[in-house]
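Reviewer comment 2.1 asked that we show a complete input and output for one of the modelled complexes. We chose the flavin mononucleotide case, as it is the one discussed in the main text.
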Amino acid sequence: MEPIIDVIKSRRSVRQFLDRPVEDDLIAEILEAGRWAPSGLNNQPWRFVVVRDRRRMASLAECTRYGAIIRGAPLLIAVFLDEDVMYDHTKDTLACGAAIQNMLLAAHGIGLGAVWLGEILNRKAEVCRILEAPGSMELMAVIAVGHPAPGGSDPGVRRDISEIASSERFNKPIF
Ligand SMILES: Cc1cc2nc3c(=O)[nH]c(=O)nc-3n(C[C@H](O)[C@H](O)[C@H](O)COP(=O)(O)O)c2cc1C
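Response of the prediction step:
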């Protein structure tokens, strides 16, 4: 098995996809990765809606300035927080984030590309209406998934560890 750090570091957001559906067994694997995320009290507050219908996707594309990504993707996974099982909004939101990252990594691990779409939250209510979400559902993100188009992605850029971690207290270098 490839070391997990290599999988984490080689994952990049993919925004262009081949015109090819994502196979059901691959969708199942991505959802399984989301299902196994950690959550406070193990309350598993996430709910996933898989969207493949082009007309519904076209409506969702209208809800974000990243609509072109949605229009070019064969599959979306909308991630909701179910407020009926929520115990702490921050912790449950973080748990949904863990589920989303698990799914991004799983997609990458099976050769798919994916991107976390957050800007669409500006129009949460419209997305909920399009997906016929019950009132207890709060939109957390939409993930666009597909077989990556050729072209490759950049190596990625991150802050140096010295900028984001310290030892014992803030402002004391870690190494
Ligand atoms: C909370 C969140 C919201 C994001 N929203 C968007 C978005 O609306 N549109 C988009 O193209 N990418 C979005 N991204 C992807 C980021 O732009 C991307 O993860 C970041 O630039 C780092 O690039 P990488 O994922 O390739 O390492 C989002 C990522 C996160 C974590």
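The helical segments are 4-10, 24-35, 54-61, 67-71, 89-109, 124-130, 161-164. We note this here for comparison with the apo prediction described in Section 3.2.
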